[in-house]
Amino acid sequence: MSRKDTLIEEAAENITIPVNVGVVLDADTEIGKMGMKCISMALSDLYASHGSSYRTRLVPNTRDSKNTVVGAAAAALDLLKNVEVQAILGPMTSMQANFVINLGDVAQVPIISFSATSPSLSYTRSEFFFRATLNDLSQVQAISIFIHAFGWKAAVPIYVHNEFGEGIIPFLNDALEKINTNLPYRSVIHPLASDDEILKELYKLMTMQTRIFILHMPFSLGLRLFMKAKEIGMMSKGYVWITTDGMTNFLRLENSAIARSMQGVIGIKPHVRVTKRLQAFSYRWRYNSQEEASIQDLNIYGLWAYDATIALAMAVEKIGPRHFSFQKINVSNGSMDLDSLPVSTVGKDLQHALVDTSFTGISGDFHFKNRQLDTSIFEIINVVGKEKKVIGIWTTENGIPRNLTSMSGDPILPSSAASLDILWPGDSKSIPKGWVIPTNEKKLRIGVPVKDGMSSKFVRVINDLKSNTSKVSGFSIDIFDAVMATLPYYVPYDYVPFENADGKSAGSYDDMIYQVYLGNFDAVVGDITIIANRSNYVDFTLPYTESGVTMIVPVKDKKQKTAWVFLKPLTWDLWLTSVCFFIFFAFVIWILERKSNEEFGQTAPQQLGTSLWFSFSTMVFSQREKVVTGLARFVVIIWCFVVLILTQSYTASLTSMLTVSQLEPTLTSIDKPCCNTF
């Protein structure tokens, strides 16, 4: 081969083939400016490192979609018909992509979006649509697991009224149903909603029971909503706010107003492993962006734009140098003619090359699974001060590990959710219950008594004149607080002292209780005695002290001072039984002693009379006769014991009747009328 032929061959090898690609972005938005800059940096980095080996060069043709669906469609039509681009990077939003995808199908041109996340843009819908970002569906499981860990049974999604907002809701509903959490209400915010319209919807949410809110909307709209929520008190204790990655990815807390409005917010975002390559790229990004004040910090969408551009350039190079052209069929000269579009001759080859493209990008492992990115790792962040504190990392294998430094930690379960160090809205560390009794912004007014000139261990009211506030404490207050804390929901309440303007008691306990009947108090707490007239106006709780329920009523004296009072201790039946036993004992003694004991007499009448005398005289142990038989002595011993018990019992009963007051209440029931008793 001659030297001339060699030079010609080398020159041919150094010739690069330009390949037109379209870029459809919203030029005046932050993500649009970021995407354009990252695309430019990606092409510069790729061809600088592979200049000698790459025969193709992507030539970006940028069009402004002007933040509208029509603008994106017009830009795509212009690029396909007039520039004959082989692929389109963009568009930005799911609404824009919904129409542009159809154009790509007709022209057989790959549409690669790094920011359209709606699940409705399914990979089964178009073989030429590539989602170089995450499907919103991928974060639904992370949100449901987080809610399940705290046992919340209801949540309200707040989403923007467009394809981006509505696409996630059916999948979110299905995921929450699996953990027995329902969506009692769906709050829809228009993309162009005014502040008054946002306030109206927030006030409606305040009247509902649920306090768990899942926010799925663009950052600009979400920030306005948080500002208004802070303004009306919905960023206070008891509320839970969870933001999806569409807002969390753009979260910046350098602005004090933003940080104050979002304290305690929980956010979900994709996890990006920090590498030296990423750190170097971030440094170059900040250096190159110093002169462009409108471009803010780099986020995940910029990384995906960079990697998507690299993937497209690699796929174009993979199909090799060839004639990149369009087959024109009945195409008119009108730039907006929708009847027919030119068809790319290499579209299918480029589509297959993109499917097979896989590499490690600055965002991590980059490859298309079902023509969309796939990730199994999400960060759960907590807004604390001006920091985005990572409180958990969700993975499909391990849930939310306790040990955030290890992906193999035990998952967080409902029983161990308290192990997550979370600052909730209202600077609270206690886990919100998730719902309250709807009070239409009104807290329960709990009346407490004020005692003049004395301190009570049950209720103490201390007035702070400097701050014009009252501090309430005491045993009754502690009991009430403990009971309210055990409720499965949060009930807001305030203690209101029953006092005049001078700080003294405004009346008696009866007057304070009557205020509940009038509606000035919702309840009263204190050392309040349960009495009949108060029960006509309020319901009392069960007593929590040992005194119980008592009645103070007049009584009557049952004691009768008569001459026959000594007969009262024993009944007539007992008197008769005692006499019979005396006679029976006399008869037994006569039978046993009549033959051998001369002291009982010689004749039968004498013996019977002496036996009766012996029987009755034992009652005072004054018998003179002696018994001589052993069996008679045994009977006397038993009889003396019986007589002793009988006499002592009689003496005690008579003494009690004569000395102890016998009182009987004249009123035995709280419902029984008491007339002429006072």
TrEMBL record:
SUPFAM superfamilies: Periplasmic binding protein-like I, Periplasmic binding protein-like II, Voltage-gated potassium channels. Its main location: membrane. May form heteromers. InterPro entries: ANF_lig-bd_rcpt (IPR001828), GABAb_receptor_plant_PBP1 (IPR044440), Glu/Gly-bd (IPR019594), Ionotropic_Glu_rcpt (IPR015683), Iontro_rcpt_C (IPR001320), Peripla_BP_I (IPR028082). It is found in: Membrane. It comes from Coffea arabica (Arabian coffee). It is a multi-pass membrane protein. Residues 445-669 form the Ionotropic glutamate receptor C-terminal domain. PANTHER family: OS06G0188250 PROTEIN (PTHR34836), OS09G0428600 PROTEIN (PTHR34836:SF1). Keywords: Glycoprotein, Ion channel, Ion transport, Ligand-gated ion channel, Membrane, Receptor, Transmembrane, Transmembrane helix, Transport. This is Glutamate receptor 2.7-like. Glutamate-gated receptor that probably acts as a non-selective cation channel. May be involved in light-signal transduction and calcium homeostasis via the regulation of calcium influx into cells. Pfam families: ANF_receptor, Lig_chan, Lig_chan-Glu_bd. The chain crosses the membrane at residues 574-592, 634-652.
